[in-house]
Amino acid sequence: MSSAAADSRKRRAARACLACRKRKTRCDVARSGMPCNNCRLDGVECVVIKSRRGRYVARTKVHMMSRPLF
Ligand SMILES: [Zn+2]
Ligand SMILES: [Zn+2]
């Protein structure tokens, strides 16, 4: 196990590079960095676009639900 103990286990949306998105292949760019495995194998450029509005923010319109947040 060669983990660097810096494995942040955050539940983010799976990030995939453009090539993987197009091909619908699994992208491990979030884990192993760029280029991802598929791009490295294919020898193509690994491009990841950061989406600015993917932050799961309900626009100030928060309903107070009587449900315990987990
Ligand atoms: Zn990829
Ligand atoms: Zn890639």
TrEMBL record:
CDD domains the UniProt entry points to: GAL4
Keywords of the record: DNA-binding, Nucleus, Transcription, Transcription regulation
GO biological process, one term: positive regulation of metabolic process
Name of a matching Pfam family: Zn_clus
Family matches, as InterPro entries: Fungal_Detox/Toxin_TFs, Zn2-C6_fun-type_DNA-bd_sf, Zn2Cys6_DnaBD
SUPFAM superfamilies according to UniProt: Zn2/Cys6 DNA-binding domain
Zn(2)-C6 fungal-type domain boundaries: 16-48
Protein name in the entry: Zn(2)-C6 fungal-type domain-containing protein
